[in-house]
Write a structure and sequence with these properties.
alpha/beta, Rossmann fold, 235 residues, two-stranded antiparallel ribbon, 11 strands
Length: 235
């Protein structure tokens, strides 16, 4: 291989190399976000599976579930795990998102150590299509353990954390800051394998009538405890 061909295609030298002016080639399977404007800004054109994706929220409930709905629907043939969500999952909201409550496993724990253990077990089991883990404070070494566990499979793995965590280091190759905006959501690209994007991306997200009334509904199932996770995954 001559020098000119390497300069023309740096990924030919190593898959993890790319030009600073272009998005990197994905080294894992990607799942379409269902939002063309967002997918066009992500390496591989979608959410990477088998890796940690950091979603940094100004506050919970700004549309993050509507953002993730298409991808969750795409992997719903396997169990979807909701770990430490800030609110109990509601039947009407799940129906509005097109998600079958029977495919969801809701986990909660009183101890952060148990929640981290549960997340690692989900990722290592390989039996779940997606894991959504809400956490306020996670140590860097814990993030590295979860990222390593995710790399052993193809689970779609999202950490949903406060916006302030954008200041902290993370092994996640993709980190997005999400803020509410009129008619949708504003997305800042804190970290991606590609060129720096300074301007936020506006993504329209229209709530449905069911979603507006979802808080009136009851939880659709009872949560499982984190330490009781393995029997739940066996079903």
């Amino acid at each position: 291989m001559n020098c000119s061909s390497i300069l023309a295609a740096p990924e030919a030298l190593h898959p993890s190399l790319w030009r600073a002016s272009q998005l990197a080639h994905a080294d894992t399977r990607c799942i379409d976000t269902g939002h063309a404007a967002l997918s066009s800004q992500l390496p591989g054109g979608g959410w990477p599976s088998g890796t940690l994706v950091d979603l940094l929220l100004q506050q919970p409930g700004i549309g993050e579930m509507r953002l993730l709905r298409p991808a969750l629907s795409a992997c719903a043939e396997r169990r979807i795990v909701l770990l430490q969500p800030p609110h109990a999952p509601q039947a009407l909201a799940l129906a509005a998102l097109g998600l079958d409550p029977a495919q969801l496993l809701w986990l909660r724990s009183k101890r952060s150590a148990d929640a981290l253990w549960a997340a690692e077990q989900v990722l290592r089991s390989g039996s779940c299509g997606a894991l959504l883990f809400w956490a306020n404070h996670v140590r860097p070494d814990s993030l590295r353990r979860l990222h390593l566990a995710a790399q052993g499979g193809d689970t779609l793995f999202f950490m949903l954390r406060p916006l302030a965590a954008a200041q902290d280091a993370s092994p996640a190759p993709l980190r997005l800051a999400l803020r509410p905006a009129a008619g949708g959501m504003s997305i800042d690209f804190v970290k991606r394998r590609g060129p720096l994007r300074e301007a936020p991306l506006f993504l329209p997200l229209t709530p449905s009538l069911l979603q507006r009334h979802a808080p009136l509904d009851r939880p659709v199932f009872a949560p499982a405890t984190a330490r009781g996770l393995q029997p739940a995954l066996a079903h």
